[in-house]
Amino acid sequence: MGHRKDSDVETPYKALRCGDDVVAASSANKTTTVADVARRHRDVLGYYGARKDAVWIVGQCEWNMREKSSVDVVKLAKALDADAASEGRLQNVSVDFITDCGRSTCGSRRECVRKMAAHYHFVVVATDSDCFHSPYELIHDAFEFDIVPVILAPRGETLDYPWLSVVHSVDFGSLGNMVAHLRVLLSSPEAYEKYFSWKERCVEVAAADLCLLCVAMNDKSYEGRVRRSPEDRSTDRKIQASRDECRGRAPAFARAFPVVSNDDPN
């Protein structure tokens, strides 16, 4: 859904319909599944040799917090007992950053996703990203390629997605456990590709089919974006957080896996 606080009407970015009827229609060549779209993109892109681990599109605020994030990750590591999942061994996943919300790297969000899918296994999605109105924008774009979204969200924040389609922080008790799981997926192509199996049973539903009124309200050139005034020449990325807002925010990893102080009576 739209993430803007000034929205009068929230419209879905994209929606999925899944089930046996989709499989039957696909077998009869009457519909195009998400898997068909991903295969088409794979054929066009090609995947250039060994792909790297993960990539994260960040805005200026998130980029400025990278040093703070590193400190918090160290605190998190110290807070972990020897992880059963990693058997006490150090487990790392390398993450490359695309800064400035990708403006200097790619012309649009979809172009960024296309480039990332060709070179990485995972794309990190923070639910309060500076770069997107909603995490669903990046998640659904990633679904159309062979790249798995890794979602960082505070506990209690819910998102809708097909089973075994994303790696979600809420499913892990600690950052160490999540990283260990990512290492397993990176070392096992069979386990990694299970995150694409759901695509054979699902199709995308156009926003126009869900809400004709919403389309009318967003004018006839509606493309799933927030309507803008004529003087707003920006792209489909949302307005960046102010310095004050940025200072008041915790890094995404720290919000997803808060460290409990030893002095905390709870």
Automatic annotation (TrEMBL):
Region feature (Disordered): 225-247
Metabolic or biological pathway, per its Swiss-Prot or TrEMBL entry: Protein modification; protein glycosylation
GO terms assigned for molecular function: fucosyltransferase activity
SUPFAM superfamilies: UDP-Glycosyltransferase/glycogen phosphorylase
Membrane topology summary: Single-pass type II membrane protein
GO cellular component, one term: Golgi membrane
Top EC category: transferase
Location of the Fucosyltransferase C-terminal domain: 91-225
Keywords: Glycosyltransferase, Golgi apparatus, Membrane, Transferase, Transmembrane
Subcellular location: Golgi apparatus membrane; Golgi apparatus, Golgi stack membrane
Keyword Phosphoprotein: no
Gene3D superfamilies linked to this entry: Glycosyl transferase family 10, C-terminal domain (3.40.50.11660)
Catalytic activity, EC: 2.4.1.-
Family: Belongs to the glycosyltransferase 10 family.
Name this protein carries in UniProt: Fucosyltransferase
UniProt source species: Rhipicephalus microplus (Cattle tick)
